[in-house]
What does this fold into?
Amino acid sequence: MTPLLSIEHVSKAYDTTQALDDVSIEIQPNEFFALLGPSGCGKTTLLRSIAGFEDPDSGAISILGDDGTSMSLLSLPPNKRPVNLMFQSYALFPHMNVRKNIAYGLEREGLSRSEVDARVAEVLETVSLVDKAKARPAQLSGGQRQRVALARAIVKRPRLLLLDEPLSALDRKVRVEMQLELKRLQHEVGITFVVVTHDQEEAMSMADRIAVMHDGRVQQIADPVTLYSRPANVFVADFIGSGTLLPGEVSGDTFSALERRLPCNNASGVHGPAVLMLRPESVRVTPDDSDACLRGAVIETHFYGGSSITAIRVDGVEQPVVARSAGAPRYSMGEEVGLLWDADEAVVLAVGGSSETPP
Ligand SMILES: Nc1ncnc2c1ncn2[C@@H]1O[C@H](COP(=O)(O)OP(=O)(O)OP(=O)(O)O)[C@@H](O)[C@H]1O
Ligand SMILES: [Mg+2]
It folds into this structure.
């Protein structure tokens, strides 16, 4: 499939900060794509470069035109790009009602009165704010304000909508509702979304695919399940989800740590110093440690209603190994237990970079 947006080898530096370092990403038509990474990793800089508010130092950014051919965005001013950016700290016009806030951009484009009315009415319906059309921003809840901002962004029917931390101002409950809303909206309006977030759960729950960034570089681009179960490197493993990262040495299918050979999945053929990733739900705790992979003592248990977490201190391992299981905790503090896991679920990661087969 021809991508809707192609970002090729884009770099951008501010003085001594390399905000974007050789970033390449392809985004497909109608995709819900997320950019995920810690503060300062370059997410906003990348969105601003796509929207035209920032000039990359090098690289190319192109979009699929109506005629099916690809056109460069870099030579176009922001208002000529078929792209709309909802800023990280968006502001509604406080003196205008909801309807006017949404209509403003269309009126500036010089659309006819009837066209503006029809499009605003349609989008008010989409974001479920018909009954708030005459309200001022100050009379709305945080979630409603957020929906006005979204309505304002989609009413212009951009081919690509860029949303920079669209839900960051909301409290947790509204935020989870808006995540579902955003996904429904994207499906309904058929616009390609690129959403920036530093919240991994938010990215995982909404996006078709995610690019994980760190220090201006793309670490991995994949769907949520792949990122979680097959992270490309230690940074991604640590940033996405929870679990234990156990340092050791690998050679072929043999992972050695703590003077033992531990079951592992070394599908990417890492060789030498490496890290073994154990997700909590992959670790089984057993009272009988005769065939356990590791042994240790229970130091913490937490019950979360449907499931529980058990933390086990293993001699020679800095962090406790964490296991998640269904139901109530079955072990008590101080109890000696064995730990088991399936080789396939314990992924070997290269130290200090992406996994590579040795020459
Ligand atoms: N105009 C600027 N001048 C100088 N440095 C900048 C400028 N804009 C961004 N930077 C730097 O570039 C890096 C990337 O910034 P960016 O705003 O893209 O990060 P971000 O991933 O969006 O972070 P956050 O999650 O905090 O919004 C940071 O180190 C930042 O300090
Ligand atoms: Mg930002």
Residues 354-359 have pLDDT under 50 and may be disordered. The longest helix spans residues 172-189.
